[in-house]
């Protein structure tokens, strides 16, 4: 009788220990999960960054500034060509 109780207790301990080991994640699982979360994060950041860059590039202020610089550069280029004519 004592032997059967001891065996039953050992079986319960073994079963509990096996379940506990299966519940714990290995270091490889942690790295895999971390990699997936990192990829998801970077994908989200890249989409948001692209949206912001597109919005900034299409804004009225940026368009006017770009036009102004182009006009100023063309004026400077014309002035330089008039001043230093090639012979």
From TrEMBL:
Alphabetized Pfam families for the sequence: ApoC-I
Cellular component terms per the entry's GO annotation: high-density lipoprotein particle; very-low-density lipoprotein particle
InterPro entries the record matches: ApoC-1_sf, ApoC-I
GO BP: any one term: negative regulation of lipid catabolic process
Location within or outside the cell: Secreted
Alphabetic keyword roster: Lipid transport, Secreted, Signal, Transport
Leader sequence segment: 1-20
GO terms for MF: fatty acid binding; phospholipase inhibitor activity
Primary location: secreted
Family according to the record: Belongs to the apolipoprotein C1 family.
Protein name: Apolipoprotein C-I
Originating species: Esox lucius
């Amino acid at each position: 009788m004592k032997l059967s109780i001891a065996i039953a207790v050992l079986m319960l301990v073994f079963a509990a220990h096996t379940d506990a080991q299966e519940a714990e994640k290995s270091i490889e699982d942690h790295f895999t999960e971390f990699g997936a979360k990192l990829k998801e994060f970077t994908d989200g950041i890249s989409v948001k960054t692209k949206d912001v860059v597109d919005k900034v590039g299409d804004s009225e202020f940026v368009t006017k500034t770009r036009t102004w610089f182009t006009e100023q550069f063309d004026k400077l280029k014309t002035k330089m060509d008039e001043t230093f004519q090639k012979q």
